[in-house]
Amino acid sequence: MDIIEIIEKKRDGFELNREEIHYFIKNYVDNFIPDYQASALLMAIYLRGMSKKEIGILTDEMRVSGEVWDLSMIPGLKLDKHSTGGVGDKVSLVLGPMIASCGGKLAKMSGRGLGHTGGTLDKLESIPGLDIHETYEEFKNQINTVGMAIIGQDTEIDPADKKLYALRDVTGTVSCIPLIASSIMSKKLASGADCILLDVKYGSGAFMKTIEDAKNLAQTMVDIGKELNKDVKAEITDMDQPLGFAVGNNLEIKEVINTLKGNGPKDLIELCLESGAIMLQQGKIFDNEIDAKNALIENIKNGKAFDKFKEFIKAQKGDVSYIENPEKFPVAKNVIEIHSPKTGFVNKINALAIGKGSMELGGGREKIEDEIDMSAGIILNKKIGDSVKEGELLATLYTNKEEYSHVEKNVLEAFEIDDKFDESNISKKISIN
Ligand code: URA
After folding, report:
1. pLDDT number for residue 213
2. Could you give the CA distance from residue 281 to residue 249 in angstroms, rounded to a whole number?
3. How far apart are the first and last CA of the chain?
4. Annotated catalytic residue, options 10, 63, 82, 105
5. pLDDT score, position 155
6. 110 CA distance to ligand 1 centroid (A)?
7. How far, in Å, from the CA of 252 to the mean position of ligand 1?
8. What is the pLDDT of residue 169?
9. Of 100, 112, 316, 366, which is the most buried if we count CB atoms within 10 A?
10. How far is residue 370's CA from residue 417's CA, in Å, rounded to a whole number?
11. Phi/psi at 47 (nearest 5 deg)?
């Protein structure tokens, strides 16, 4: 077999078979196929697309390109959840303790934030001492005893994705549904969970800008699950405004704490309840949505979800005194208030602008090697649908930087305030099974 023939076949619009896809992945990971030929094939896939069968095979070949973790020795079904990324998305940190306190087992590998989107690992690392590195044995042990673990992907899992993702990033081939779906699903499937819930975001702050693209990506990933006999479900949720009020690492951890204590923002708690109910049913802990939701609500009220969060933080060596006394988290030295220039209703909040603003204040990274300021970010005071009076607080910026006037301007412009509220801006949710 020859890589040039494979590139030509895809260039001419034909379907690749397992042997050809295996040949490409194996030899690319082993450095026998150079980046320039892999780039040509990626571009041919980008332009020609892939059939369901090809996407299933590509995912499977990427999945087995490195270590594949087996969690079957842990009793019960292991659950995982993946969000395609957004602004203020701290769902995993609220949802994990909620479902673990109900007997679910969360086995999750997470990523870091890049650009305007935040990452669960960075948020966790804003808790002093917290360690996101675990061996296979430690990961299994923690899931078994605590009921949840969230760790980084610094293992030998899915080396094909590591190489391909970096190459896609510099060859204009990131925004391609077969490549995104196989990238996400190969990592998820290699990390050992039995059931996966995908939260596919659409809107100004998301990868997928339209609901149609989000549906297409969600359906492609659910189909991969069917092809590979895994229980994969998806929900499509909007990212037309940040989730909750807090954007930025320790600011979001403080919101997680409040939410687990029963004082969370409505959109965040609703999404956690919906997602949690699906996952507890996937895990066969409950057989209907109402009982699952009631158990999740009960465990917020009786403090079990918050206690589970503390147990999880302790198991990963985080200093629990910060969770018990959130005022211990450092606060950025510059705190800047943004006030509304007029009276009206908030019709839009550009999530991309808020995410970028948080990054520019120091709360995110532009390049993967950039350092993050854990105390930097933005707290929104108003959300879509809220009424606002002239001079009222819209948002507060937190930064240790001295130059932030451009962020003040961009955050103010991110709010669209009109005389009337447009009902069509109310968020939509769709589930795909
Ligand atoms: N996240 C991934 O893991 N892979 C992609 O291709 C896009 C988003």
Report:
1. 94
2. 31
3. 38
4. 82
5. 67
6. 12
7. 23
8. 84
9. 100
10. 34
11. -80, -35
